[in-house]
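Its record is set out here:
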Amino acid sequence: MTSASVSGASNTARRAARSDWITRIGRVGLVAYGVVNLLIAFLAIQVATGDSGEEANKNGALSEVAEKPFGQAILWIVTVGLVALTIWQIAEAIWGHASAGDRRLKKRLTSALEAAIFGFLAFTAAKFAMGNPQHGSKTQSFTGKLLDAPFGRGLVIIIGLAIVVGAAFVVWHGWKKKFREDLDLSHADAKARKAAERTGQVGYMAVGVAYAVVGGLVVAAAVSFDKEKASGLDGAMKTIASQPFGSLLLWLMALGFVCYGVYCFFDARYRKS
């Protein structure tokens, strides 16, 4: 194949992956992701009030949808949106952020990470849509297997610390309002611009703090060699609930997830295409 053919195929793939319909459905996926985070906030409130029959994480949120009338149909719509969102971010990782200059590589790596996250969530949503939910803490199961492996304890500590570092980056990303770089707010009125910035700032920081607790629990499991301490977001929220003023902290965290969910709606409306 000639270089001209390769270039032509690349341009065709670029146009297809970043076409208007993929972008539009990807924005629907962002709305769906916002709804998932609002449901996590609702489940966190249930943990805070001691009335939690579901996991306060993405699995619990999707399960909540699946149990409603037309829930599986809604989950298929969510799945399609998240798949399109994944394709959109893959395209951005490969060809996007041309105007970012020296920061293009960082932006493309961020898009690749988002593609992986949204792709996994799309897979999970499809499982629930097909009536094949997976309950239980995958974090706990994965950590338990690693702890039993040679050098597993050290690996678990490294993973836990990596989660904490990543969570700290998310908090910093929110505090510095770095998310604004992905938005085009030039056509938004002052109220919408301020609301997008505030919900994004609070939302990112709350999500970062929640996952910092997850990372801390993973490290604690490795240090104490106690598999039961390793858990995901649900376990982190229940750990927070057991602390002094835990219910108040969970209410604040739920507010943070509400803000992040609402920010996803602004992201869907104003994300640069």
Confidence is low (pLDDT under 50) at residues 3-7. The two ends are 31 Å apart (CA to CA). The longest helix spans residues 190-224. The chain has ten helices and no strands.
